[in-house]
Amino acid sequence: MSPYEIIKTVRITEKGTDQSEELNQYTVVADHRASKIQIREAVQELFNVRVLNVNTMNMHGKTRRKMTKQAGRTADWKKAILTLKKGDKIELT
Fold first, then answer.
1. Residues of the chain below pLDDT 70
2. Which terminus of the chain is more solvent-facing, meaning fewer CB atoms within 10 Å of its CB: N or C?
3. Which residues contact 74 (CB under 8 A, 6 or more apart)?
4. Any residues with CB less than 8 A from the CB of 38 and at least 6 apart, and which?
5. Coil, strand or helix: which one is 66?
6. How far is it, in rounded angstroms, from Cα 28 to Cα 8?
7. Phi-psi label, residue 48: left if phi above 0, alpha if psi -120 to 50, beta otherwise
8. Rounded distance, CA 56 to CA 39, Å?
């Protein structure tokens, strides 16, 4: 898989912003088949940073309902929290 297939997006949330400022950690959405090593290599190649640690979680999709009574689900996804080397940062624009 290419790095663009492994890393889907960088999550920008209030909690993630605090983590990036205080702990130099960033949250990304990764392909559910990707391992920690593949995620690390993809981020280092895409953003030119040094990744020290990768923590992953499989997030389950939520049940949603539209205006009708028909229920559906959002997709399951993998969340990866990356700890970067001091001085490195991912530009979030």
1. none
2. C
3. 61, 62, 64
4. 1, 6
5. coil
6. 7
7. left
8. 9
Q: What proportions of the chain, in percent to the nearest 5, are helix, strand and coil?
A: 25, 35, 40
Q: Is the pTM of this model over 0.70?
A: yes
Q: Which domains occur in the chain, in start order?
A: 3-62+74-84 (3.30.70.330)
Calpha distance 7→23 (Å, rounded): 21
- Which residue type, as a one-letter code, is found at position 71? A
**The residue type at 75:** A
Q: For residue range 78-88, what is the model confidence (pLDDT) as tens digits?
A: 999 999 999 99
